[in-house]
Structure formats: C-alpha cells, structure tokens
Amino acid sequence: MAPRVQAPSTQQHDHDHRQQPIACTTPGPPRTRERSVTPDASEEENENNLKKRHFEEITDALAGNNKKQKRQSRSLLRFIGLFTDIEAVISKGIHISEDLEDAELSEEVIGMTPDERNAIVTQYKKIVQLIPSIKEDAQFYREDPDALCDLIRYIQKHAADGRSDDLGMLKPKVLGYLPAKAPSAPPLESLTLSKGERGWAHHQTARLLCPRSLVDEFVTDPDSFISSVESAEIAITADDYPLFLYSNEAQYDPNNIENNLLRGSYLLAVFRCLFTGPRTATRKVSGPSGGGRPSKAKIYKMTKVTPESIAYTAVLARFSICGQDSWEPQDGMFSLPNFYQAIMDLFDDPTDPWYIDTLAWWNKQVFGYDRPSGDTEAQNVTGSSPTSKSHLQQQRAARRAAAATAPSSPDSTPN
User: In Å, what is the CA distance from 180 to each residue of 102, 187, 204?
Assistant: First the structure.
C-alpha cells in the first residue's frame, strides 16, 4: 500500500514560499489524517473543506488500489526510460513546467542551466502524458511537499514492480529464444536454468554477451576468452555492442558497424514477449496475436516501436542471460545505464537512413506493418581500445561529411 498523503493546513503562513529541496528516496510508513467535519463552517472554511475533500480523494487514490494510476506507473520505465530519475524529474518538473517565478523555485532548480531545465521538462511532459493526474493535481503537489513525496514514492514503487514483473516473466522463457547453439557449446540443461549458470558460465550465453567485434576471438577458444573476461584482461563494456543485438545470419562488417544492428532474433523475441505477449515471441508471422489475455501493447495502446522500448528490451534481454541473480545496474565492467544510453544514442538523428529503416523493420516485425517513427510516446585490457560505438560514430560522421561536401549535380547549378 502506498503511503497516505496529509491534507494541507487551511491556515495561511507568512514564511518564505520558496520551494524547498525534496528528499523522497527513503520510503516511510503510511501517514494518517483526520477528516474534519464542520457543519456550521463559514464560506471560507467551506471552500477550504472542498479543497480538503479533493485532497482526500487524491490520498485515497495513492493509498488504495487505483488500478488505472497503478497501471500507468508500472509502464513508466518501459515507455519513458528505464533509468529515469523519477524523483528529480517530477519534483523539479512540476515547478519548472509552469514557468514559476524564481521566488517560488528551489535554489537547486534556479541554479540549473537552460539545457538542464529543458531536459527535465521534456521528461516531465512524457511522464504527465502517461500519468495525466499529475498535471491535473499539480497545484496541490506544489503546495504540499509531503504529498509530492508520497506521489513520487508511489510511482517509484509501481514502476520498479513493473520492471521486476517483466524480468520474472522473462527468466524462465528466454532460454527458449536463444539462437541455435554453437557447435562447441554444452547443452542447456533446462528452461529453468539458474541465473548462476548463465552469463560467462555457459558458452552459449557467453557468446551472446560477447561484443560482436570479438566473436571470432571467442569462437577460436571460448574457455580462454571467458577466462580473460573474468580476470578483466578483456573488458566488456556498454559501448561494445554484444552479439545478440545483431542479426544471426548477417556477416559482420567492421567498416559498417550499424549494418544489421538491433535486428537479432533473440532481441526481437524478448521484445515480442514483453509487449505483444509470450505467444508471439517466436512466431514466423509478424504482428500481434489475437485472443487470450490482452498484451501490454494493447493495454497501453502501443501502435509503434520506439527507441525507448528497444533500449528497455535490450537491457532486460542482457540481464536475463547474464549471471546476476538480482537486479543491479553494474555487471562487472558492464554498466546497464550506459548500455541503455548507448542504444538510445544510435537514434540520435531522426533523418538518418539507419534510424528510419531500423524502426520500419521493427514495426514490421512486431505489428506487421511499417509506421513512421514520430514522437509518442586500463593496462592490458582489450576494452581500452576504441569501442564499436566510437567506430560507428566516426563512420556516421564521415558519411555525413561526405554528403555535405559532395559537388552539386549540373541540374542544380543556378544559371
């Protein structure tokens, strides 16, 4: 049960109205509040009582089983961003987005750069689009920091629950989505293989975690490669795209790293499992499955694939085959937040042909038709060399520079 919020005091205070910094990270027990009954109240008191009744409705929504708000909160990490700082975005965005005077803002917000403010507002607007009641009751939350903390705790809890449920669903299923095993790989014992036997403990999952640029080295001597990873002689970092991100059949071209990137069959199966349902995960025919329990895509009216949903899937797909038993943002040298951002960085230019073609491919595979991708929703360490991400960025920059300096055709030359 989410903590209860307190109805605000009806008294007016003369103290400084500047918003104080909010620290909501430590959950507390539900707070109780009394419902005041004043049958002979004055007009002013009646007005305040109306406010209180509204505040009590909000309280009940947070403390009770408001299915709609809970469902909205559970989907936040899937559609807004897996590592969204919910507290920072809501506690700051609810003030910045209203263009309040500096006297009404905290010193921390006042000290933010315009870019930082814009980033917060962008994320805040996405959250409000998903959970409209935040904007509807924004004035209440601005006036009552304790209530705002309760709201943030509520959303944080259910957002984390949504991620945990997704991981719980994937754990027994993902081994059935793995590509055909490598000839040298020992068999997977069962679909309930423990997490401790995944990751670098098994050749098949280790191969999928291996950077695509190092797969040939892995295949030559898997045991030696794994030993080098475990001893940190080879660094596996978030900026080296793992094999499972690539199409199984495609040849790797180090001079065109983005070719077939984000088209791996395992990645696609995990995405389908999460968003269109487990029954669709390995279907040969694209598009959602009819009948049965409604999928997340249907529940949330999801009609197109977004970079955020791909990045969310990529992180959960990796975690599901790694050796970690519990959710942690760091797996050795591999940072899950950095991996999420590395996927998002691939979609840095909506006009780039790779961006357009990749989302069109995803929409075809998931929904059965193409859709436009508009807004919606160290020493002796191999990893110290330039990463796949840096090479890809250089290749993109070179292509764009070449296109910009290419001579105009005779037809485009002015007379």
Answer: 60, 11, 9
Determine, yes or no, domain membership for 37: no
Residue 399 in this model has a pLDDT that exceeds 60: yes
| Structural domain range at position 49 | 43-159
Residues 87 and 192 reside in one and the same domain? no
Confirm if 371 and 228 have CB atoms less than 8 A apart.
no
Residue 154 shares a structural domain with residue 203: no
Domain membership flag for residue 29: no
* Closest alpha carbon to 388 in 267, 259, 271: 259
DSSP label at residue 385 = S
In a domain, 151, yes or no: yes
Alpha helices in 41-113 (DSSP H): 43-63, 67-74, 76-79, 86-96, 107-110
Q: In the structure encoding, which two tokens stand for residue 165, read together?
A: 């449920």
The verdict on 185 and 149 lying in the same domain is no
How much is the pTM?
Answer: 0.78
Q: Does residue 165 lie in a domain region?
A: no
Does the pLDDT at position 37 exceed 60?
A: no
**Domains contained in the chain, number:** 2
Q: What is the pLDDT of residues 190-245, one digit of tens each?
A: 445 788 889 999 999 999 999 999 999 999 999 999 999 999 999 999 999 999 99
Phi then psi dihedrals of residue 334, to 5 deg:
-95, 120
